[in-house]
């Protein structure tokens, strides 16, 4: 890519299911589209593709939803869409997306912006979570499915939410033994989601496929268990696990120690709303959908003119929601540019997918007790090495807002800009797991970029 | 809720914290001191600021004032620490003939005050700062300056103050909404969480000090926000290890400025300032603009100051920038802060208006307020900072 300033009718941030579905649909309607994605290939998190030339391990089957993923990718790759992979969007105003690509500073000028940047892992700190070998469930999947790396031999997968299962199967496919898979939510909670899942054929088939894989590998998914701490000398060697009650509080006397060299911890996802906030879009807090979500209307419009959003950014919902919303956003964007009105079935489809995913997420309601796993010495902010005791002292002296905790102990100031610690910091520091987090304050650059990229920003 | 206090300090920035710290040191243990802030402690300018502890030798008065303050910082670092104090010294860089003329002037000022500094030749410059561009035409090194992390310093001061006086109450996230007066003097403070009866109030609210003065029924205090952009790099990538600043900074940053309410670019916008951080990153500042309380980023000025920074430290080019933000310096008319009793209302004191030197000058400011309240001889002549100069 040589031109530093380029134009398109629509600029899309994110090449996951939402971005791909929207891009293909817009191209089919004759719109010029550029998709900017940090990854090296299209697919986003869930349909992550191996780098070109890396073959998947033999004999690996895929869940039924991946048929849909292949359709999306095929349609996308066949469409008149320009994908800029390896592009980091770091600043934006309506109609303008600044990005870094191959060390150069670029600007995309577009009439409409679609934000489809997905989500981040939610981290809940526990003693030993910063030991090498312990990673988020998401990072483990990137390693295994994106780079074809085998991360270890004996794995523990812990956390809460529908992403535990794909983490387990990805590890199994890579030849890793999964010693235990622990879902902190109780079976009782799971029952609440049952009607929603049974009423939705695709989700039921998906769940059955995963269960079959686990049974075949002899992995038992234990409900109402979690990790208390990880231990080891320089690398994780063992994990202490225990039963938890309906609130996620550990039950004394149920501890067990298991030997592992890989731990994937995923306590759900948090919508990646930073770019939306930078653009000035409104957000709202929806605990059941992962926290602060961008506000979108029935046509995926944000509260800022010319800016649309689809997928996890509007609330955690999974790939089906994302692609349905992407298709809907495409129709709405096309309409806003003078195309035909948005058809009712697209709206209905997106709503139905949201309903189904909201129903399923009921099984994984937030568990306040999990915020009691950390002790005084547990690091809560990895970038700045801040232990819980300092975050607590900051909340006591400086105030209870996220800004107060940040200036009081530096938590959230590092390179990740609170993407890792932010979603649980306030609950931990105030010792009030029910407290509602403040909306994060986002500044340029939304992701770290070179100083020269900022200096040479076109426009 | 109603309570009584001997002193209420309004504003939990570096100045308010330093005032509480000095009051705890100078007044009896039994003194009831309340610190109150609308937002977090260190949440406003002091949490958005660089932490250069700067000795300014312009006049003997300036020198005594700033040098004493920096000495107090050194002592605090030795006693309690915890705020990433670094004794880096400061490197003043010249880039043109006009700049080069300033070097001997500054050198003489330090010397006249009996202090030492060094005019560097090419080799010495390379020794002190190997990461610098090879074509910097001149530089002066002053070893007495340092660097702190201002927001952590606020906490450190309050913690030590509480060791001296356990009854100190810190009330964050609670706004002062008004003042009570009777017979020409202060009698209390109204807050979002009840009133506090008190005979003494210190207004240490930085750029909001005029708002608080108005609340007390007083004429407008001439303090104006002067915005500055900052950018921070990732950890362990700083190409520099001393506090660096363009010597041209001295021409416009300090002293009296013309307040331009239209908010046009003032020349300070062009002097870059680079500060090594204890985590191995680098903080890059800082521009100057009068444009009211607006804290939106001026992208053009940011690009310019990063470009200037790269001119001196070329390796910055490939260094990741993690965040940028804007802080508001409280500029007081005439260029000097207001420190002392307000002449028109008994019991009201002011400690505000430190512009770009509030971190450096916080300890001496606190001390001057506390010594005057305690009736002790002040460590430095307080006359130039008396609020009574307004309207004089
Ligand atoms: C020495 C130093 C080093 C730093 N290092 C890092 C670092 O490594 N990484 C990093 O990310 N950040 C760093 N910071 C910056 C960090 O403290 C904040 O990001 C910065 O203070 C300003 O951030 P913000 O405006 O984004 O604050 P926010 O978090 O945006 O502030 C929230 C709210 O506070 C209020 N507020 C804050 N300041 C003011 C003010 N001056 N005037 C009026 N209202 C105000 C506003 O209402 C605002 O909405 C550093 C700061 C300093 C001083
Ligand atoms: C970009 C930048 C770089 C700088 N670099 C340096 C440097 O390197 N060295 C240096 O010495 N100085 C530096 N400064 C200057 C320094 O930051 C300021 O002079 C200093 O922080 C001012 O502190 P303060 O306590 O007066 O104000 P603040 O920190 O703003 O504190 C005032 C407090 O008053 C509170 N308040 C306001 N209204 C109310 C109310 N109604 N009720 C209760 N509380 C209220 C606010 O919430 C706030 O916390 C820099 C400043 C900026 C912006």
How would you sum up the major sheet of chain B? Answer: 9 strands, mixed
Structural class of chain A: alpha/beta
The proportion of residues in beta strands of chain B is: 25-35%
Helix proportion of residues of chain B, in percent?
25-40%
> Radius of gyration of chain B, Cα only, in angstroms?
21 Å
> What does the radius of gyration of chain A come to?
22 Å
Query: What compounds sit in this structure?
Result: flavin-adenine dinucleotide
Helix coverage percent of chain A: 25-40%
Order of helices and strands of chain B: EEHEEHEHEHEEHEEEEEHEEHEEEHEEEH
Write the layout of secondary structure elements.
The complex is a heterodimer of chains A (459) and B (392).
Chain A: E1 5-13, H1 17-28, E2 33-37, H2 65-78, E3 82-85, E4 87-93, E5 96-101, E6 104-115, E7 119-121, E8 134-136, H3 137-147, E9 154-159, H4 164-173, E10 177-183, H5 187-198, H6 201-217, E11 221-223, E12 225-231, E13 238-243, E14 256-259, E15 262-266, E16 269-271, H7 274-279, E17 283-286, E18 291-294, E19 307-309, H8 319-336, H9 344-361, E20 379-381, E21 386-387, H10 388-398, H11 402-409, H12 422-430, E22 449-450, H13 451-455
Parallel strand pairs in A: 1-2, 1-6, 2-3, 6-19, 8-15, 9-10, 9-15, 10-11
Antiparallel strand pairs in A: 4-5, 5-6, 7-16, 12-13, 13-14, 17-18, 20-21
Chain B: E1 2-4, E2 7-10, H1 14-26, E3 33-36, E4 52-53, H2 60-79, E5 90-94, H3 97-112, E6 118-120, H4 122-128, E7 138-142, E8 146-147, H5 150-164, E9 169-171, E10 176-182, E11 185-191, E12 194-197, E13 201-203, H6 209-215, E14 223-233, E15 243-246, H7 249-252, E16 273-276, E17 282-285, E18 289-290, H8 299-312, E19 320-332, E20 338-341, E21 348-352, H9 358-374
Parallel strand pairs in B: 1-12, 2-3, 2-13, 3-9, 5-15, 13-21
Antiparallel strand pairs in B: 4-8, 5-7, 6-7, 10-11, 11-12, 14-17, 14-18, 14-19, 15-16, 16-17, 20-21
């Amino acid at each position: 890519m040589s031109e530093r300033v380029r134009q398109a009718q629509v600029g899309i941030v994110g090449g996951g299911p939402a971005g791909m579905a929207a891009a293909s649909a817009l191209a089919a309607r004759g719109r010029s589209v550029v998709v900017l994605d940090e990854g090296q290939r299209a697919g986003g998190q869930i349909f992550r593709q191996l780098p070109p030339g890396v073959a998947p391990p033999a004999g690996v089957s895929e869940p039924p939803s991946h048929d849909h993923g292949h359709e999306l990718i095929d349609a996308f790759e066949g469409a008149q869409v320009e994908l800029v992979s390896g592009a980091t969007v770091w600043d934006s105003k309506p109609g303008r997306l600044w990005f870094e690509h191959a060390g150069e500073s670029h600007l995309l000028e577009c009439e409409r912006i679609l934000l489809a940047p997905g989500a981040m892992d939610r981290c809940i700190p526990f003693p030993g979570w910063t030991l090498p070998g312990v990673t988020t469930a998401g990072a483990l999947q990137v390693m295994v499915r994106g780079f074809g790396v085998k991360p270890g031999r004996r794995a523990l997968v812990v956390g809460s939410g529908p992403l535990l299962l794909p983490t387990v199967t990805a590890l199994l496919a890579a030849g890793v033994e999964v010693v235990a898979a622990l879902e902190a939510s109780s079976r009782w909670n799971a029952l609440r989601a049952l009607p929603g899942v049974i009423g939705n054929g695709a989700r039921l088939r998906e769940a059955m496929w995963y269960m079959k894989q686990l049974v075949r590998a002899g992995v038992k998914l234990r409900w109402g268990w979690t990790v208390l701490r990880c231990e080891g000398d320089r690398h994780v060697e063992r994990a202490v696990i225990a039963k938890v009650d309906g609130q996620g509080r550990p039950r004394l006397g149920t501890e067990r120690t298991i030997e592992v060299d890989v731990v994937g911890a995923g306590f759900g996802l948090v919508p990646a709303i930073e770019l939306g906030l930078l653009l000035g879009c409104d957000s709202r807090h929806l605990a059941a959908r992962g926290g602060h979500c961008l506000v979108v209307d029935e046509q995926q419009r944000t509260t800022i003119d010319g800016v649309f959003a689809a997928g996890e950014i509007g609330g955690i919902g999974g790939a089906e929601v994302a692609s349905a919303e992407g298709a809907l956003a495409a129709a709405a964007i096309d309409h806003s540019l003078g195309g035909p009105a948005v058809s009712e079935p697209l709206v209905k489809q997106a709503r139905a997918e949201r309903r189904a995913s909201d129903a399923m997420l009921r099984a994984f309601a937030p568990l306040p007790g999990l915020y009691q796993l950390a002790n005084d010495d547990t690091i809560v902010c990895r970038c700045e090495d801040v232990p819980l005791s300092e975050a607590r002292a900051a909340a006591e002296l400086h105030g209870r807002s996220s800004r107060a905790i940040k200036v009081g102990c530096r938590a959230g100031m590092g390179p990740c800009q609170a993407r890792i610690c932010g979603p649980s910091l306030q609950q931990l520091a105030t010792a009030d797991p029910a407290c509602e987090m403040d909306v994060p304050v986002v500044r340029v650059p939304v992701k770290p970029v070179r100083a020269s990229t900022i200096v040479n920003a076109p426009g | 809720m109603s309570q009584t206090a001997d002193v209420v300090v309004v504003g939990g920035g570096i100045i308010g914290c330093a005032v509480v710290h000095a009051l705890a040191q100078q007044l009896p243990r039994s003194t009831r001191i309340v610190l109150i802030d609308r937002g977090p402690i260190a949440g406003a300018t002091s949490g958005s600021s660089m932490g250069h502890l700067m000795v300014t030798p312009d006049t003997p008065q300036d020198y005594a004032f700033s040098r004493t303050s920096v000495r107090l910082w050194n002592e605090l670092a030795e006693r309690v620490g915890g705020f990433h104090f670094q004794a880096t010294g400061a490197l003043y860089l010249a880039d043109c003939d006009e700049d080069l003329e300033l070097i001997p002037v500054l050198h003489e000022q330090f010397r006249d005050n009996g202090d030492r500094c060094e005019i560097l030749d090419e080799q010495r410059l390379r020794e002190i700062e190997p990461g610098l561009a090879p074509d910097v035409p001149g530089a002066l090194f002053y070893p007495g300056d340092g660097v702190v992390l201002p927001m952590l310093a606020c906490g450190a001061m309050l913690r030590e103050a509480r060791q001296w006086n356990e009854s100190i109450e810190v009330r964050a996230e609670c706004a002062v909404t008004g003042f009570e007066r009777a017979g020409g003097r202060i009698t209390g403070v109204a807050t979002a969480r009840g009133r506090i009866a008190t005979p003494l109030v210190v207004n240490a609210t930085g750029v909001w000090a005029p708002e608080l003065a108005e609340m007390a029924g007083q004429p407008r205090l001439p303090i104006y926000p002067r915005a500055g952009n900052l950018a921070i790099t990732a950890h362990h990538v700083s190409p520099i290890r001393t506090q660096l600043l363009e010597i041209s900074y001295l021409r416009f940053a300090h002293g009296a400025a013309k307040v331009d309410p239209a908010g046009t670019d003032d020349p300070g916008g062009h002097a870059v300032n680079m500060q090594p951080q204890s985590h191995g990153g680098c903080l890059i500042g800082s521009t100057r603009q009068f444009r009211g309380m607006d804290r939106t980023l001026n992208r053009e000025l940011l690009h310019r100051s990063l470009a200037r920074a790269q001119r001196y430290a070329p390796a910055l080019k490939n260094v990741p920038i993690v965040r940028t933000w804007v802080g508001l310096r409280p500029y007081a008319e005439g260029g000097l802060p207001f420190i002392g009793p307000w002449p028109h209302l008994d019991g009201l004191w002011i400690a505000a208006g430190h512009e770009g030197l509030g971190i450096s000058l916080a300890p001496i400011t606190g001390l001057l307020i506390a010594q005057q309240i305690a009736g002790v001889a002040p460590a430095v002549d307080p006359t130039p900072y008396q609020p009574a100069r307004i309207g004089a």
